[in-house]
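Summary of Year 1 activities. Much of the first year was spent building the evaluation harness for sequence design. The harness presents a backbone, in tokenized form, and records the residue chosen at every position. We chose the following record to illustrate the format because it has been used consistently in internal testing since the harness was completed.
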């Protein structure tokens, strides 16, 4: 095992990338991917739902979507919706700002490194690039 310090956002990107390589064959590689998936899932619990929309914002978003890309009348209706719901929009922006701040914070996680000799023969450069944080 190896302790690595990275940004929450980098860990989240890695966690989201792991399923794309989970079907590649190779015993050591598969063990490392499965182990790291479990470690990251537990370590990133504090990020769950950080960008989930409030019910009020979700409803506003649906209403706004009906007016997007339309004529001037729709544009005016969209502007009116935004003005009438400024507090909901402000709260959503604050939520996004807080999430971005959290994603930029450092987090140390003890992971199972993956050495290049563990890589399966049929792995692409794109797949390898997504795993660089785990390289030994």
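For this record, the design step produced the sequence shown next.
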């Amino acid at each position: 095992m190896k302790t690595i310090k990275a940004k929450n956002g980098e860990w989240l990107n890695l966690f989201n990338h792991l399923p794309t390589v989970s079907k590649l064959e190779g015993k050591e590689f598969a063990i490392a991917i499965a182990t790291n998936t479990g470690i990251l899932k537990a370590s990133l619990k504090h990020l769950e739902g950080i960008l989930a929309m409030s019910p009020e914002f979700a409803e506003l978003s649906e209403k706004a979507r009906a007016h997007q890309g339309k004529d001037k009348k729709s544009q005016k209706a969209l502007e009116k919706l935004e003005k009438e719901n400024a507090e909901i929009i402000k709260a959503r922006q604050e939520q996004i700002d807080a999430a971005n701040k959290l994603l930029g914070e450092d987090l140390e996680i003890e992971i199972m490194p993956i050495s290049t000799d563990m890589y399966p023969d049929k792995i692409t450069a794109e797949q390898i690039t997504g795993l660089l944080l785990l390289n030994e």
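Strands lie at 2-7, 106-111. Quantitative recovery figures across the full test set are reported in Table 2.
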